[in-house]
Design a protein that fits this description.
The chain has 198 residues and is mainly α. The chain has helices spanning 22-29, 45-81, 90-119, 124-129, 131-136, 145-158, 185-196. It is rod-shaped. The protein starts with 21 loop residues before the first helix and ends with a helix.
């Protein structure tokens, strides 16, 4: 009979258990990747940080450059499309304001002449169409009715044809239709010249 080795009692003879390594501990916790106990070389975190910082600075510089180009393009296109007005020149605005105010004064003055001319026996259309009369009243305030009335009377004395009815012409007489009969064309021409003050 052969002799069989006696079974060893695990409780009495324990086998040596290897000491756990940091990798075993990390694997037991579910952590992957290198651990401080491994012989792999760790990356240089400062260098990595500098690399991304430099990249961020380059991106910001590129963005600033592109934003400047976009603003220049908008500045060139917007006024042409009427989306944005160019900044106004103060001198040009002042000139436009003065011209608008002068035009408003001239319109008010003309309205006053149209009202006062009929009351003073003058033809308002002839007065306002006269360049010499318009120039003579240019400095008069439109609200100064006494000065405007005096200017109208002075114009009537100097130019009698500015009167509402010409001398020797009946009130309400006007151009006659030569096709209606009763007058022949030469008389109609003479009447027209007399109405016009020639």
């Amino acid at each position: 009979m052969s002799q069989t080795p006696a079974p060893t009692n695990p409780a009495t003879n324990p086998e040596p258990v290897p000491a756990p390594t940091p990798t075993d501990a990390a694997n037991a916790l579910g952590v992957t990747g290198p651990t401080p106990g491994d012989n792999e070389q760790q990356p240089d975190w400062k260098a990595e940080s500098r690399k991304w910082e430099d990249r961020s600075k380059r991106n910001k510089a590129d963005l600033t450059k592109l934003q400047g180009q976009l603003d220049a393009l908008k500045g060139a296109i917007a006024p042409a499309l009427g989306l944005e007005q160019a900044p106004a020149d103060p001198k040009q605005l002042a000139d436009q304001l003065a011209a608008t105010q002068a035009k408003a004064q001239a319109t008010r003055r003309e309205m006053a002449i149209l009202k006062l001319a009929t009351a003073n026996g003058a033809n308002p259309d002839l007065l306002t169409d006269s360049a010499s009369f318009t120039a003579s009243i240019a400095a008069i305030d439109p609200d100064d009715t006494a000065a405007l009335t005096a200017a109208i009377k002075q114009a009537l004395e100097a130019h009698p044809h500015f009167a509402a009815t010409a001398p020797g012409q009946a009130a309400g007489a006007g151009w006659q239709d030569t096709n209606a009969g009763g007058t022949n064309p030469p008389e109609a021409d003479a009447n027209a010249l007399r109405i016009l003050g020639f």
